[in-house]
Design the sequence.
């Protein structure tokens, strides 16, 4: 029986951010919820091992690695205004990247159907030269490059539905036609990039797809973007595997953003992505946790995703209450038309 791998390491709890919203409580909420969930017979709990430094070095400049390692050695410090490094952070970040690598490798060797990597610190804001936005190493990018270096995948698509623009992932692959980077995100919001005119450069022109969405969008607007932009972009690109930067901070109760996605909405999002993976790349998907700062909503939304990945029973109820009224399809029709125009979709 094939399975969904759930990759996790206790080491990821050692990234100590004090009272910061990106806290160890996020992962603890996810793990305790998944461990007690019923009806998930095909979910295998697996260890997220540490990445080798040179795998991370294939993505990040040595100066950045040395800064993170130096701050950890010195007992901690701020990398930027909102990104802290504690004594345990280097180990946590290596296990976060290593979990993504291990998941990708086992999936691409045929040992798993798909995988969810429940790790922290998150990664999608980490650029070649800097950690920022709570991110130290770009976990997804490290796993993409490692998969390509091992010859396990050539064409890789990254689907980033975190509420923030995945600027680090964009920067890392901006000139690379072997990696399609799709990001839908709230705009305006941190980090301020991700306009639909940012579409790649040089040989990578056309391989970056950005969908900036107004605050207040809910399940229907997200589903519309998946159907009208993600689906044709992926069908055009024909990936060997999908990496999903799975951020849940577009949930309506999230303290850091203003979108109104519900927990069942995250289930639909997962069904949409899984169906495209089934059509285009034999269902091969590696989901890697990014944001999501209301721990109860986060844990329920991750469970909704994992249920889709593992073919378990579907319905997960929103732990807070039904979602408030959200902006619908009409709120994104203009931007969808603009993105499709830029990309000829
Ligand atoms: Zn985010």
Sequence:
């Amino acid at each position: 029986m094939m399975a969904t791998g759930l990759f996790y390491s206790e080491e990821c709890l050692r990234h100590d951010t004090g009272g910061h919203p990106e806290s160890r409580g996020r992962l603890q909420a996810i793990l305790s919820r998944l461990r007690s969930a019923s009806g998930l017979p095909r979910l295998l709990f697996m260890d997220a091992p540490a990445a080798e430094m040179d795998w991370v070095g294939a993505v990040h400049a040595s100066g950045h690695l040395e800064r993170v390692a130096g701050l950890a050695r010195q007992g901690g410090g701020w990398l930027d205004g909102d990104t802290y490094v504690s004594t345990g952070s280097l180990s946590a970040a290596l296990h976060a990247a290593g979990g993504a690598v291990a998941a990708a490798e086992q999936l691409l060797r045929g040992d798993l159907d798909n995988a969810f990597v429940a790790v922290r610190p998150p990664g999608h804001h980490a650029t070649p030269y800097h950690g920022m936005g709570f991110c130290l190493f770009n976990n997804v990018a490290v796993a993409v490059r490692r998969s390509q270096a091992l010859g396990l995948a050539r064409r890789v698509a990254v689907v980033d539905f975190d509420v923030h623009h995945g600027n680090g992932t964009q920067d890392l692959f901006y000139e690379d036609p072997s990696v399609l980077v799709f990001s839908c995100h709230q705009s305006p919001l941190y980090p301020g990039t991700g306009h639909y005119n940012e579409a790649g450069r040089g040989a990578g022109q056309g391989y970056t797809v950005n969908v900036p969405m107004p605050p207040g969008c809910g399940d229907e607007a997200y589903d519309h973007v998946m159907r009208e932009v993600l689906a044709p972009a992926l069908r055009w690109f024909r990936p060997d595997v999908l990496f999903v930067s799975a951020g849940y901070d577009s949930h309506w109760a999230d303290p850091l953003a203003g979108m109104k996605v519900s927990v069942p909405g995250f289930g639909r999002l997962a069904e949409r992505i899984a169906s495209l993976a089934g059509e285009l790349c034999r269902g091969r998907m590696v989901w890697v946790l990014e944001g999501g700062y209301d721990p109860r909503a986060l844990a329920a939304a991750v469970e909704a995703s994992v249920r889709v990945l593992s073919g378990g029973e579907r319905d997960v109820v929103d732990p807070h209450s039904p979602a408030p009224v959200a902006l619908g399809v009409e709120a994104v029709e203009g931007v969808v038309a603009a993105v499709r125009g830029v990309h000829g979709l």
